[in-house]
Amino acid sequence: MNASALSGSPASDRVITKDHWFEQFKATATDKELYRFLYAMPKGGDLHNHISGAVLADWWYDLALAQKEHGYRFYTKVRINNCRDFGNNEFARRPYLMLFNNLMESTYNQLPECEKAEYKRLEELTEKEKAGWVQSVMLDHDHEGRDEFFQTHWQRLDQLLHSPYLIAEVLYKNMKAFGDEGLIYLEVMVEAGGYFKPDGSAISEDEAVAIFRKRLAQADAKATGVTVRFQDSILRFAPNAEEQLKASYDIVSRHRDLYVAVNMVGREDNDKGYPLRFTKTLRELRQKYNNVRLSVHAGEVDEPNYHIRDTIMLGADRIGHGINLITDNDLLRQMRHGPYLIEINLISNLLLEYVSDYSQHPFPEYLRLGIPVALSTDDRGMWDSNITDEFFVAVKEFNLSWEELLLLSRNSLQYSFVEDDIKQQLLDTYNKRAAQFEKQFRSKGVAGLKASAPVSYGFTCKRYAVCDLR
Ligand SMILES: [Zn+2]
Asked: Where do the Adenosine deaminase domain residues begin and end (predicted)?
């Protein structure tokens, strides 16, 4: 099956009338019934997922404490005593006025005494402090938008992200949760670099990859039925982004059975990270490497610009977000029916205020113009959501047909960077499961949906009052 056969607008080939079983279901189902249907519905892949943003708030605490097994102990800041010496030392450069900043014990031990008194061992938090700590890693208040996300969340998590074992466990927990939602493929941004041993010394990229591989090989991970591939990502506006890019190409190329692509992340309204900055470096890298794909965040920005054009020119086969494609008529026309896919993140875009409500989101326009699109979760831990929520928003806000739901899932496999033979197996599995699901639902209705209760989270509860399904 070729890509263009999948990316065409389904509405043009089939007549959807109000008698269609799915149209009838939507017309009569309660929101909870629709959610149950979408949770049980077989799905393809999640192609846009940052592992460190995919940690649900109620996972963090136990995960952090469990790192003791690998020698890690964490401290978190519970008060501010105005003791920062803003002199020229290593600690003066760390963010100071930030509660619930997390440090490894080896870093904590080096703090000046006054600052040490501001931190507490994570396991010694009072119930109230623990509740505050858990809240602090969620983006759940109306005033918390883009700045809170980009500038505070990651700095607060800080050294919790230094343990590769924690990341490996987050990976497993996502595989399990996504598998329960009927997802069969996860292409996730898992950086190979940036990890440290409990004593503060660096863990090499190859050592970190070995830890991830070992976790993926465990029986419980395999039992999820979710096939996993990684992307390595670079921070596009960092002063050393070109060096990061070279290191990323190297790591992906050397671990190509697990790592399939390089991504570029970081807010696009920081103009230090504009796409054309990387033209020269990428051209040099392409002289040497023959097996690295690119999926790049582009068009996740309010202003019209040429970031998506430039990013395709850079060699990206998939675009993350692509919100401002809607402002570029020429490119919009060229992108109809492929070959590039836009990774759509409906919940992320709303919560980070790239759209103020869903009537402004370009997703239905892309979908119905025949531009290949798939739904993905971006940073679901931060939004307190799952992949079902993305489908729920899409159906509720844009009246998706059954054919469109099938198309989105097939696209999420067809445009993945997994090896061709495995891709075909995944597509076959998906098609078989989707056909079975449709048959079963048409004969038994809601009563025939999987017995296990769907798990829902805060986003759909707060916004659509679909709560407590677990
Ligand atoms: Zn992203």
From this structure: 143-429
User: Any idea where the domains of the chain sit in the sequence?
Assistant: 3-55+163-463, 73-158
CA–CA distance, 65 with 75 (Å, rounded to integer):
10
Q: Are 35 and 461 in contact (CB under 8 A)?
A: no
Residue 277: closest CA among 235, 317, 229: 235
Residue 6's pLDDT band (cuts 50, 70, 90): very low
| CATH superfamily of the domain spanning 3-55+163-463 | Metal-dependent hydrolases (3.20.20.140)
Residue 173 CB-half CA count within 13 A: 21
SS3 375: strand
Kindly give the distance from the C-alpha atom of residue 111 to the centroid of ligand 1, in angstroms, as a whole number: 34
Could you identify the residue written with the tokens 């989270």?
457
Compute the distance from residue 263 Cα to the ligand 1 centre, in Å: 9
- pLDDT tens readout for residues 293-311: 999 999 888 888 899 999 9
Q: Are 346 and 376 in contact (CB under 8 A)?
A: no
- How far CA 354 is from CA of 269, 313, 323, 360, in Å, comes to 12, 24, 8, 9
The pLDDT assigned to 86 comes to 62
Which run of H or E residues covers position 319?
strand 318-321
Q: By the 8 A CB rule, do 292 and 249 touch?
A: yes
Per-residue pLDDT tens over the stretch 45-79: 999 999 999 999 889 999 999 999 999 999 999 99
